[in-house]
Inverse folding.
């Protein structure tokens, strides 16, 4: 009998492609955001509001991850920006190898900001690096206070959490201050934004943050 | 349920390594899974079963060693077990905590003939 020591990370292949993607984004001075959440928390609605506010200020592109449909991509196309659809055909997350060929369908030279809307799932996407610059998780107040404790990885690995559906707060048992404290216990550097995509509330600080990151990336890339 | 895609990566690595080492049948695989990965051991076992038709894995047993979540305080360098995913140093109360272990996901070794 032979014993073979490996110590190879299971995600090594993914991480190698993620590094290639990241290198390309750096070369193009393009800021890439990975948007993650459970289904129904409002990722696409947040994306719509964000596009509305930023499309006059920045050149935007979107990659839509969906298991089977093109429903979200159709919603985004209406804004007249570049959209590429990835159907994962059953897979519960996007990985770097799915994103890489989708990049060929976008003119990266003509973009300032690329937003990747991941498959609706609070568990699996957190494990896969796509080569993005930042990760934003969406959590709606209707989902309940226990979500950070149940799904810590996605919040630990994110830079931003958008707390959505704050217009529903009076109708839920959600204690939003406690929710924010719980998120900060997992990751004290998290930037938190309270928003309502439905009523278009609270978006200005979020889009300002995003615009700052885009400009920072451009400067960094130009100085290299 | 991303354990199946993780397992596809695992068996790929095993196939490649077994071919390089001239191993025809694997008897045991030791996988290390940190408690802060989102991979569920039972689901990994179930996914592994899907590859049992292959001769290489026919008699293979998958063993999973779990690694607890530990943090290291960046301010006072205290190393501690993280409970309930609260990344706060119990020594100096700093929230400036690095994950020291718990994010592992790798094949430690396998045995075969």
């Amino acid at each position: 009998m032979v014993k073979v020591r490996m110590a190879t990370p299971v995600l090594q292949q993914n991480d190698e492609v993620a590094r290639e993607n990241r290198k390309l984004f750096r070369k193009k001075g393009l800021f890439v955001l990975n948007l993650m959440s459970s289904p129904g928390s409002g990722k696409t609605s947040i994306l719509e509001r964000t596009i509305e506010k930023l499309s006059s200020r920045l050149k935007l592109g979107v990659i839509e991850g969906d298991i089977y449909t093109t429903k979200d991509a159709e919603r985004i196309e209406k804004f007249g920006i570049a959209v590429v659809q990835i159907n994962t055909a059953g897979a519960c997350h996007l990985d770097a190898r799915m994103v890489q060929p989708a990049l060929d369908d976008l003119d990266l030279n003509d973009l300032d900001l690329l937003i990747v809307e991941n498959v609706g799932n609070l568990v699996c996407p957190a494990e896969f690096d796509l080569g993005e610059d930042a990760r934003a998780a969406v959590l709606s107040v209707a989902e309940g206070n226990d979500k950070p404790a149940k799904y810590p990885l996605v919040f630990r690995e994110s830079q931003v959490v958008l707390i959505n559906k704050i217009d529903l707060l009076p109708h839920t048992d959600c204690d939003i201050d406690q929710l924010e404290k719980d998120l900060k216990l997992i990751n004290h550097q998290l930037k938190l934004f309270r928003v309502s995509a439905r009523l278009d509330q609270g978006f200005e600080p979020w889009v300002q943050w995003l615009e700052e990151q885009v400009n920072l990336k451009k400067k960094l890339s130009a100085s290299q | 349920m991303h354990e199946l895609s993780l397992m596809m990566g695992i068996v790929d690595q095993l196939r490649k390594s077994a071919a390089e080492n001239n191993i025809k049948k694997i008897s045991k695989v030791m996988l290390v899974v940190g408690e802060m990965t989102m991979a569920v051991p039972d689901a990994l076992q179930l996914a592994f079963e899907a590859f049992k038709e292959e001769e290489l894995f026919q008699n293979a047993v998958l063993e999973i060693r779990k690694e607890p979540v530990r943090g290291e305080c960046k301010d006072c360098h205290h190393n501690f077990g993280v409970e309930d995913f609260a990344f706060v140093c119990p020594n100096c109360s700093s929230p400036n905590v690095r994950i020291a272990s718990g994010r592992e996901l790798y094949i430690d070794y396998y045995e075969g003939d």
Summary: The two ends of chain A are 52 Å apart (CA to CA). Chain A is about 40% helix and 20% strand.
